[in-house]
Amino acid sequence: MTRSAETFDAVPPWLRGAALAALVIAIYWPTFANGYVSDDEIYIRGIHDLRSFAGLRDIWFRIGAIPQYYPLVHTSFWLEYRIWGLDPLGFHAMNVALHAAVSILVWRLLLRLRVPGAWFAAALFAVHPVHVETVAWASERKNLYSAAFALGSILAYLRFAPADAAPEDARAFQATRFYVISLVLYVAALLSKTVVVSTPAVLLVLRWWKTGRIGARDVRPLLPFFAIGVPLSLLTVRIERVHVGASGAAWELAPPERVLVAGRAVWFYLGKLFWPHPLGFVYPRWTLDPHAAWQWAFPAALALLVLALFALRSRIGRGPLAALLLFVGILVPALGFFDVYPFLFSYVADHYQYHASIAAIALFAAAACLATATARAAGIGGALAALAILGLLAHRETYSYRDDQTLIRRSVELQPESWAARYRLGAALQSEHRLAEAIVEFEEALRLYPDYAPAHANVGINLVTLGRPDDAAAAFERALAGDLEDDDRATVQLHLGNVRVTQQRFEDAARAFRAGVALSADPAELEYNLGVVLRQLGDMAGSSGTLRSSVAHEPDVAKSRYALGSVLLESGDAVGAEEQLRRAVALDPGHAQARELLGVAQSRLRDAP
Questions:
Q1: Which residues, at least 6 apart from 190, have a Cβ–Cβ distance to it below 8 Å?
Q2: Which residues contact 274 (CB under 8 A, 6 or more apart)?
Q3: Angstrom distance (rounded) from CA 148 to CA 105
Q4: 8 A C-beta contact, residue 579 and residue 569
Q5: Domain count, the chain
Q6: How far is the C-alpha of 60 from the C-alpha of 66, rounded, in Å?
Q7: What is the four-CA torsion angle of 389, 395, 399, 403, rounded to 10 degrees?
Q8: Boundary (domain end) residue, out of 550, 568, 596
Q9: Of the residues 387, 404, 421, which one is the last residue of a structural domain?
Q10: What backbone torsions phi and psi does residue 485 show, to the nearest 5 degrees?
């Protein structure tokens, strides 16, 4: 043991843990002033709709009540909402505290595994810039919870069966309570994010690393872990496809293309760990071509690295291969073999490697510690320099998450070829009513991804406001030719129908509205517009029937009742007209036309024989 290691070991464990927490707080202090970004609108603000105890029941027992079935995370949001409402400070502070806890758990796990440089590895994990996305993005709580519970599960399991215990000595270490604790923590991790399904496989790799073998005796205790983890993971895959929307042309990858994604993604993540600049909230989506030889270099190089480390295990030890297997294995759910909605925008994201990075960072820290064992000053200086540089980069990165506008603009600045970043910037400009600028960004997104239907739709919406109906109609037609969910397609049909009315192409307008009604889960507005157009076309029976349906869907909308009353009056049904117009006036006392027409209907009723 070196003199520096002896000195460090003399530092009380609580003080070393406190130092890790202090590092995290110092780096992430700016996040306490940050607002919400991206999916926070769904995950955090959306909890407002589930704030009751009935909502808590839905979080646990109704699939679709929350975007993904991670009930433990949403329960934490539910509890925090009851404490500090929608104030982002509380949610950000909790994320920072959880990251500090995960960093401490990383240190304790590496200590138990006797990895050289355990504290240095945990400190690197605590300050690394690639983790800013997980910590500074409030709704990425699922990464933090799942990592904390998974690490706790591994630590408890190693109390039950230490990784380096010889098979004949295993019974001496067995303690049922630690096995039960490990299993419970594993379930908690899965209910936070099923990416941790690999935890039992991680334990087997650790066993192989320490002993060089895996036997049936090692596998049997882990079978309940697999039996719970695999079905929950398959449920997540189904929810991603059915409820989140990870289906369609963008996810239809052939097996060779998925291999290309996986091979390239592994090197991408390793590259970001060793050179974390530039980072991006959204990275460009790769174009996959199985016929391009250079794209196969990534999976081929990875396979060769695995073979080389296996061949060299007797000379350099099993540690490097074990670390690589852990890194890749933990990443598997995010490597393109399973469809997740964000693959529409990019095949990679910094937060995907939050769990996996522990293995690569631990290997680097151990290698650095061993390499500088005889050079105390160089080792300490290098460690401090690495922590300072990474810490400063991470601290700077937290400011990108100040609010959604800042994050979007920063994403475009760093990743100008990301169509998703361009699209989000267009949406931000549109919300600021900077319509011409928004169109420019949407068109830039379409240059990079010509088939993205929502971008065409937004171009059309802005062109309508700018008084260019012909161009808007063309944009809506292009959107309808693309891949849209039924409700989104119905909304585009609504916009197209309105444009056709402006152009006085009433037959085309009716066709668009009818198509929208057939698709929409909430067709009242479409039915209202269709009823008005049918009246314009002289189809009074069709108009009244459609308007009645609109009123049935939304009984408290004055304009629908007014339109129906007007049609009924023109058709000679003064009784029905009087009822609808009276309700319209009650709903909107300032509706002058409804008041006037109500007087006409009542006059006809008085004059009736």
A1: 146, 196, 197, 228, 229, 232, 233
A2: none
A3: 7
A4: no
A5: 3
A6: 9
A7: 130
A8: 550
A9: 404
A10: -65, 160
Q: What token pair was written down for 186?
A: 């594993």
**Closest to 235 (Cα-Cα) out of 394, 57, 401, 70:** 70
269/348 same-domain check: yes
pLDDT, one tens digit per residue, over 391-410 is 999 999 999 999 988 999 99
Find, among 547, 595, 591, the residue nearest to 603 by Cα.
595
Q: Which residues constitute the domain of residue 544?
A: 485-550
pLDDT tens digits for range 140-163? 999 999 999 999 999 999 999 999
Query: How far is residue 463's CA from residue 440's CA, in Å, rounded to a whole number?
Result: 12
Average pLDDT over residues 244-273: 94
Amino acid sitting at position 239 = I
| Encoded tokens for 191 | 């209910």
Taken as a whole, the chain contains a residue count of 609
Residue 560 and residue 526 in one domain? no
Name the band, by pLDDT with cuts 50, 70 and 90, for residue 9: low
For 201, phi then psi, to 5°, come to -65, -35
In the chain, % helix, strand, coil (3-state, to 5) comes to 75, 0, 25
Distance CA 510, CA 497 (A): 7
Q: Token pair for residue 5?
A: 């290691």
CA–CA dist 323, 270 (Å, integer): 12
Q: Answer yes or no: are the C-beta atoms of 166 and 211 closer than 8 Å.
A: yes
Amino acid (1-letter code) at residue 88: P
